[in-house]
Amino acid sequence: MPDPAELERDLRTAGLRVTRPRLAVLDAVHVHPHLDTEALIGAARTRLESISHQAVYDVLRVLTDTGLVRRIQPQGSVARYEARVGDNHHHLVCRDCGVIVDVDCATGAAPCLMPSGDAPPDFVVDEAEVIYWGRCRSCATAPAAPSTTARPAERGNP
Amino acid sequence: MPDPAELERDLRTAGLRVTRPRLAVLDAVHVHPHLDTEALIGAARTRLESISHQAVYDVLRVLTDTGLVRRIQPQGSVARYEARVGDNHHHLVCRDCGVIVDVDCATGAAPCLMPSGDAPPDFVVDEAEVIYWGRCRSCATAPAAPSTTARPAERGNP
DNA sequence: CGGCGTTTCTTGACTGCTTCAAGGGAGCAG
DNA sequence: CTGCTCCCTTGAAGCAGTCAAGAAACGCCG
């Protein structure tokens, strides 16, 4: 649960104007990592009594462009957002339920790993994005996939 | 350039019926790795004089489901396909022009790396998908980004 | 070799996520 | 407080991909 004043400071530091929609969305992303845009619209509307669809899309774009939030999009999922930036962490994604879990990066700084040995032709690599695919505890024990289209959500209170 | 008979054998081995659309699409994916669906429709239409939109989507779905082709989708790109499967290789993606280059995996077998040390909670990881982001030779030397929306393509003849 | 059942392709329409565009409203410097 | 600039609202459109019904093709079998 981030301090509103701190969120405001983050916006100013990034050279952005401080508006209620931006504070609401930024707070929502902090509190609920890995939500998709639709869910973030809902989360923002619990903070403000009204905010448009489009405003949330605009805000998310600005926040990602300035690096205040990070956008992730595993195969078969819509765009999701998280506020944990700067550290070079990765994600585990459950193939069945779609839940996303953060994993720390071993080496720390980006790019945490370089293309191994032989192959890097003339590429200047600045980031290695890693997604670990597998199955979470509950989906690994329960044999059949419960949900058809995975609707990932965080562990915790909505 | 794969042998048509070999492609046919691959289809049969996977338990699929051999049809001209499937041979055309599968050949196109072999010859032109990392193409998107629209481009593959075009490539298939150079092999067959007519094939529908929908057929290509269906074929690609079946081929991915059976593991004959692999689907990749870097951030901000539409779905792309490649026929190099089985080896656990990864990709370099240029942030500017969007070109995709294969990189061999150091360790070989999937999952080539496990979530580092501390964090894997109850997850059974079976694959680690790695995308290296950076800039290719020409985009690294040329300062400004030439293309707005990246239109990745392979190096080679179309 | 030819018929039949099942799978697959064609045609056409549609969904859902995301973006474009124009105008009124809000933040912030002076 | 005033004005400039940027941001949010409203409404509509774009695009990749999907759904659905019927025709055509594959391939098993006699």
TrEMBL record, chains A, B:
Zn(2+) binds at residues 94, 97, 136, 139. Its main location: cytoplasm. Gene3D superfamilies: 3.30.1490.190, Winged helix-like DNA-binding domain superfamily/Winged helix DNA-binding domain. Keywords: Cytoplasm, DNA-binding, Iron, Metal-binding, Repressor, Transcription, Transcription regulation, Zinc. Binds 1 zinc ion per subunit. It is found in: Cytoplasm. One of its GO terms (molecular function) is zinc ion binding. It comes from the Bacteria. One of its GO terms (biological process) is negative regulation of DNA-templated transcription. The keyword DNA-binding applies. GO terms for cellular component: cytoplasm. InterPro entries: FUR, Fur_C, WH-like_DNA-bd_sf, WH_DNA-bd_sf. Belongs to the Fur family. This is Fur family transcriptional regulator. It comes from Modestobacter caceresii.
